Amino acid sequence: MRRYCLLGILVAFTFQSLMAQGPKSDPRQEGTIKATVSVDLGQVFKEQMRLVEKRRGSWFEKAEKATPELFRTGKKPVSLVKVEKDTASFQGWKVVPSGKVETVCNRPMQPGDSFILDFGEHFTGQFIFVLRRFDIPVDAPVRLAFIFAEVPAELGEPFDPYPGSLTRAWLQDEVINVDDVPQEIKLPRRYAFRYVKITVVSCSRHGKFGFSDIRAEAATSADEKNLLEFTPQNVDEKALDDVSCRTLRDCMQTVFEDGPKRDRRLWLGDLRLQALANYATYRFQPCEKVAVYSGWNRHGKGTGRNLFI
Most buried one in 2, 16, 190, 298, CB count within 10 A? Predict the structure, then answer.
């Protein structure tokens, strides 16, 4: 009996020393059950960040070495088109052929002239054009407006007034002034598009200008020669596979971008899905390597350069 009494006193004493005090008093930290089993997460995180700081330089070097060269391919428009409303088409608009590309090249342009070029496929890249003059020198700047569209609705519906919550700067339209003609111009911004609408906003009515060449330069890190063969069971499967591979191709730049039009960045969820698709198609691993190693290298700080969480 005395043995059980002594054991009870010992348990009560130990339990009392480990208990945290109630709400009327400041909770005890030392000697409590909570303190005994708790982990100082702040210290753990601090240690992990110390290791990140130590290793960041080598990660960045690995990312730079793994950065792939982009394959650049020339693209030419295949036809002139116009857009028409059609309730049966996607977003209520469709394109219909309107002529040959040659009809807009090497002829004088007037203010208000406008045409739409169809490149026949969607791709990511830059737009290039060459302006020429005719008998009389161009004596004033040429102002041109461009709309780069992925789908017909972007050509049929006006951009303004813009009601969206995302910045309007994501919309792919430009207005440029060309002071000297003749000249070849490569627009600096990268676009994701199939269609281009060009409008002559203003130009001299005395010295005439025209287009002598219009083309684009597609860019991707995906090598088409490495694309694994796929045997579709029907026409729909083939169309689905073609679109899927083309979408992945256009997103494969120096990393897997979530979208080449917007946001042009890598997100963790997209990285896994795109990597899995890449293993079964193009089999190009540097995109994943660059993404992982460059995630902690923005201006020397611990924020992802192209890794959003």
Answer: 190
The pLDDT profile of the chain, 309 residues, written as one tens digit per residue, is: 555 555 554 445 444 544 545 455 555 555 555 555 566 777 877 888 888 778 878 888 888 899 999 999 999 999 999 999 999 999 999 999 999 999 999 999 999 999 999 999 999 999 999 999 998 999 999 999 999 999 999 999 999 999 999 999 999 999 999 999 999 999 999 999 999 999 999 999 889 999 999 999 999 999 999 999 999 999 999 999 999 999 999 999 998 998 999 988 888 788 889 999 999 999 998 988 888 887 644 444 433 444 543
- The number of angstroms, rounded, from the C-alpha of 262 to the middle of its chain's C-alpha atoms is 5
Buried b (16+ CB within 10 A) or exposed e, 39-58: eeeeeeeeeeeeeeeeebee
Burial of 195 (C-beta count, 10 Å sphere; 0-12/13-18/19+): buried
Name the DSSP letter for residue 67.
Answer: P
The domains found in the chain, sorted by start residue, are 65-70+222-308 (no CATH), 72-219 (2.60.120.260)
pTM score of the predicted model: 0.79
Tokens of 165: 């919550």
Indicate the burial class of 78 (C-beta count within 10 angstroms; 0-12, 13-18, 19 or more). middle
